[in-house]
Structures are given as C-alpha cells and as structure tokens.
Fold this protein.
Amino acid sequence: MKLRIATRSSNLARVQTRWVGQQLQKQFPELTIEEVHVIPKGDRIQDRPLAQVGGKGLFVSEVEAVVVRGEADLAVHSLKDVPGDVPLAEGMGILSVPVREDPRDVLVTVDGTDLASLPRGARVGTTSCRRIVQLQRRRPDLAFVPMRGNIDTRLRKLREGRCDAIVLAAAGLSRLGLLDQVPHEVLSPDLCLPAVGQGALAIEGSLSNEALQEQVRAIEDSIARIEITAERAMLQKLQGNCYSPIAGHATIADARIMLEGLVASYDGDQLLTAASDTYMEPGSPDAIERAQALGEEVAKRLLERGARDLIRQAELAAVQSQLTTN
C-alpha cells in the first residue's frame, strides 16, 4: 500500500516528512511512502519578511492544496506555520500530532557566546518579531538584522560574519542532527517564550477518510496534542496572525497543564503576559476540552489587558511597511 505525503521541499521539511513516514512504517510495515515536494511562495521569496508576502500560511496552503486536489494523501507541516486566524481547507483537519521536539529557541554563535555575554551592539539575525521584542527587553543594545532562508543558509551567513548570532528553533536543529554540532545557548521560556506550536508537527488530511485517520492516529502523542490544543485555542481566540508578536507555551507536569501567553506591540514597547493552569490527566475523556478551555481563558486575560489593540496596531504597522516597501 502506497501513502503519498506532501511537504515543502526544504531540507528540514523533507527530514520531518521522512521521519513521519518511518514512524508509520513501524506501525504498518506494508506501507510504502512517496514524498510529494512543493515549493511554496514563502520559500521562493527570500528577500522580504514573511509578513510582507502573506505570512506563514504560505508554507501551508500550497502544500495543503496538493492533498485537496488528490495528488497526495497527507501533508506534513511544522505546526507553528499553521495559521491560527485562517481555517484549514473545507473537509481537512489535523489528523495526528506526533511526539513533540523541544519547543524552545536557541541562540547560535560561532564560539558559544551566550546572550548576556554578546558584545554591546552585536548583530543578531532573525526576522521573528516575537523573538526580537523579547530579546531586546533583556538586551536593548543589540541590533537585529533580517535573516531568512533555511537553517543551512542561516548558519552559513553566521560563519561568514554577516551577524554575530542567530536565533533558531531547537527542534529544527535537533531534527537535522545539528543541535550538538553548533555552539548554542538554549533560551529558557521566561527569557524567550516559544511560538505557538513550535517543535510540533501537524499531519493534515481528509476528515472523511476513516481508514487514513486510523493509520495516522497510531503515531499520535496525547501530550503533544493536549499542549498544542491549549496553545492554538489561545491563538484563535486572540485572532492572532503573523503580524503580531504572539507567543504561547504549554507544559504538563504532575497532572496539571500550565499555559503561558504573550502579546506584544509591533515595536516591543508594550508587552502583555498571562498564565493559567488546570488539572489535566492525559488520556482522560475531557482532556482536550480542558486544554481548549485553558487556552481560551489565557486569551481572555490577555484581551482584558489590551491585547486586541496591540494586535490591530501590529496589523496596521505591517500594512504600512508593505506599502513603503512596494
């Protein structure tokens, strides 16, 4: 039996998809996996921030379309790239969330210098507003420079001296087998709260194909599903988008789930945080409902503190930036 899996053509995306295929083959040895590679607009345009060319949804919609057209059976996405403000295509859903990698960010330098020890005025490569607004509160003297491209490209730019440090997701480096090969500092969530869904994968497919759903559920991780449910419930209630510096990080320990959320202004001058927790027993019948309610509760607290205004201001700032660029 052949299973066709659509994915971005980047090296990391292919590695992630190959891993998913291997996990499925462990459960179903009769499966053969065929990768269907897609080069989305977000990968073709590298000279502008994602927010100026359509947001992270560009990494998802064109891959998703391949499944909708029947040219693939599943799509594998980095879950942090799946927008919270735009629904999946009609009849499609996230059928499975496998075990999650480390969701934290890392600061990578050529010699292992940590954030506190970077020289004054050091250039840090990242295009993530979320990362910038948090790191500049700890180190307002740093200069942040745009940095797009795949992980190999960013590491090469660092080695060439185009910047003094770069910020990457620990999960991507780990999946590529690079985390132990590059000098880095893991940034704790209290210093840089991760993106919603960071470190997790989303396996998307048709909600009407029960046989396919049963197959991919075999590699579902209940803890990862609960965590991303809480984080995405917060994002969706906030109506957050790629223009807004938004972060969310859920953890489960001692039968409780904790969710921390953050919304910042586009320039980082204002930063709102909220957190809450609730009893949670992974595997219990109401686990997903509790995670959903927790996400909505944290979002409600952020909205009461003015998050909606910050999100709208970020949208307007992004639109103005696009007009200026064009």
Q: What stands out?
A: The mean pLDDT is 92. The two ends are 49 Å apart (CA to CA).
